[in-house]
Amino acid sequence: MSFSVLGKSAIITGAGSGLNLCFAKALLSRGCNVLLADIALRPEAKELLSNQPGSLRPPRAIYQRCDVTKWTDLEEMFARAEAEFGPLDIVCPGAGVYEPLWSNFWHPPGSSLSTDRTNSDGYRMLDINLIHPIRVTQLAIRHFLEQKKRGSIVHISSIAGQDASLPTPMYIAGKWGISGFVRSLAPLEKGLGIRVTAVAPGVVKTPLWVESPEKMEMIAKGDEWVTPEAVAEVMVDLIEKDECRAGRIDGGTILEVGKRVRRVEQFNDPGPGGAGNMMSNKDKATRKIVEMLKEGGY
Length: 298
Description:
Blueprint: E1 9-13, H1 18-29, E2 33-38, H2 43-50, E3 61-65, H3 71-85, E4 90-92, H4 124-147, E5 151-156, H5 169-184, H6 188-192, E6 194-201, H7 207-210, H8 213-216, H9 228-240, E7 243-244, E8 247-248, E9 254-257, E10 261-263, H10 282-294
Parallel strand pairs: 1-2, 1-4, 2-3, 4-5, 5-6, 6-9
Antiparallel strand pairs: 7-8, 9-10
Helix pairs in contact: 1-9, 3-4, 4-5
């Protein structure tokens, strides 16, 4: 139930930078309208929008400011996209954060670095990484059913959806959740023509990593990066193809993207490995946390 993205329209959250911006560029280059939703735009995203042609002819890129933790913002995002483009075909709830200090398991609510509060109702990081993709998927399914058309929902999981890591336990929990969520919605493709899939990238060279010193401590000099452009191309494959070099593509498919691309199986999977999937200094970060806890820093 694949389809060409040419002449189609898409929403991408978190498209103001990094991987999701690369995905937006990949869709635009193939003739697909894109609404970039994010709380802010990095200079490279602003440049993309400023280079848009003056006419209303597709493909077009537009920006909608959106805090993905606010469900009213998500509703407004869909309304704007429909008003600008008409019926939608592709939705990517891609916005995510990588265990930031302001919502981090090792800096709990009430600590000096955390913006999560002891009297709040959740962790902002999980609201972004897990709750927002679930809510956006609900809105996308509603839209596709109302429009009586097929559609594609592409999620961003991670090799962290199979791995475990003491330094980033909430990130791990969120990505395990995304992978299980995507697999659970697999029957929607045969039943309703709605394909729900995910990529599971390795270590992608984006601002999420390179502008975070505490995360870069886990990377050794010899570790290899995955490019966001390579991941974006696989995301397009999840929409346009029923088979790729990694195997079949259908509802529930998760494709790991390191230096190679492989299909992640639900059972008896060997797990992530190889170039692009390694953080050689992760144990150093683990020891640092253990020492902090021994010293009463929690």
